[in-house]
Every structure is written in C-alpha cells, then in structure tokens.
Amino acid sequence: MPGGSPCRTRGGKTTTKYHTARFILVPALREELEVLVPEDRGPGRAWKPGPPVEEMPAAPPARPIRIGYARCSTATQELQSQLDALARADCKSVYSEKISTRIKTRPELEKALKLAYDIKEAAPDKEVILAVHELKRLARNAAELMTLSGQLQAAGVQLELLTGPLTGIHDPNGMGAMFFAVLAAAAQIERNYIREKTLEGQVSAASKGNHGGRPKVIDDDMLTFAQALKDKGIPVPEIAKKLTIKTGKNKDQHPSVASVYRALAEAEQEAEAAS
What superkingdom heads the lineage (predicted)? Predict the structure, then answer.
C-alpha cells in the first residue's frame, strides 16, 4: 500500500482507527489494543512529517572507581603525603599500612586488590583503577611486581601511578598493555641477573674449596677411615658406630648407617669415573 493511503477494512471501507490483523483472533486484544489516529491526521489524508523530536542530552560518562593503596616500610616514615595524593586523585576507598619490605604478605594490599577484583567481576563494564603514589609502593622487586601486574591484567583492573617517570593510567587491555609488557621484560632481566650472580658466587666459592650446601656429615677423614674398615670386612653398621661427626647440630654423634652407605657408594663412583 503506497504511503499516505488510508487504512481500510477487509470490506474496503476506510477505518476510523489503526489496527493490526493479528489481533482479530483474540477478541480481548481486538477491543483493547489500538492506535488512535492523531488529531492532524485521518482516513484519506496524506501523511505529513511531525515536529522533530528533541534530542536528549547525552548522559555524562560514568566516572571510574578508584581504589587507593599507600605503604611505607618503617614507623619513622610518614604516610600522610601519600594519603593526601590519593585523596586528590578522587580515591573513594584507600588502604594503607606501615610494613617492612621484608614481609611478603601485605594484608591491606590484599584487601585493596580483593575489592577491585570483586567490583570488576560484578560490573565488567565499569572502569576500576588501583591507584598508588609510586610504583615501588606495590612490590619489593620486579618479579613480584610482574606477578601483581599479571593479576591486574587478568582481572581487567587498571593501574594508576601518581608520581614518577611512568605517571598516568595504564590499561592492561589497551594502550597500557605495553607498560605491562615492559614489566614482564624487566622481571625476566632481573631473574637472569640474579641467576648469573648466584652462579658466579658459586664458582668463586668452589674455587676456594667451599662448594655450598649443608656441611657434609662424613668428611674426608671419616670417609678414609670408613673405607679402611670396609676393606677389612667390617660391616657398615659397625663402621657407623666407630665414626663421630665433628661439626653441625649432630656433633659428637654417630652418623646413620644410610649416610655411611651413601658416602662409600659416592666414593666408589668417583673412583670409577677417575679410572
């Protein structure tokens, strides 16, 4: 039916009100559901556009939820400057603690992270930001920081640094992903550095005769004596009773039979390898 044509009944008569054929099958709907003809319109009149609909003003963007965390390591350091900075950053919830960097578990940080994760899980479309005064307040080293950043990235929680060279908001799923990638690289570099320094220290100590680890229960003199007794046919349990530990927490005690067996077996393996 062309635009502007009157709505007609099945008998061809012009209708006085709009209706839909599907309502005919339900009498109650046929009587109640109807669209009345506007005053400026009627059967047979050409359609004319009505007044433009006023556009509703756009709703202001939702403000992100900021959760602040502040920390200092000793009782002599002050937290107030961090708390003031977090308040200026519009952090509605702030967690703070004075705790040594040697302590691995930080209860207030765990509370802040749990709140951020819970809010993000309940409202995935809501921006949730964990704000700190500076990066070193979050972790003791790069490896620990990378573990934390991985958790933030998995939860979709943003990280905001209020001071320092990396000041700003870092979105783990947006442009800030590069920031988290840098943290990962830094953590790997630090792990490699620690490993290299450890190996260098072990090599240096070995060159001085210190091979690390726990002190031997059976030293070289005891081993020589035990081998001599074994060559005479003395059973290992009897050999253990004739040996005395010289150092350590078991000083002046006899070594266990298993320790003697192990020391003799290792000595035999070394002798076979050298021959």
Answer: Bacteria
How many CB atoms neighbour CB 113 within 10 A? Answer: 20
* pLDDT surpasses 90 at 74: no
> Is the sign of the CA dihedral 94, 95, 98, 103 positive or negative?
negative
**What span, in angstroms and rounded, lies between the C-alpha atoms of 217 and 153?**
49
Domains and CATH numbers, the chain: 1-39 (no CATH), 65-190 (3.40.50.1390), 220-274 (no CATH)
Report pTM: 0.48
3-state helix, strand, coil in the chain (%, to 5): 45, 10, 45
d(CA 228, CA 234): 9
Helices 177-207, 142-155: inter-axial angle, 10-degree rounding: 150
- Per the annotation, the verdict on 73 as an active-site residue is yes
Max CA pair span of the chain? 129
Among the options 73, 81, 93, 275, which is catalytic?
73
117 pLDDT higher than 50:
yes
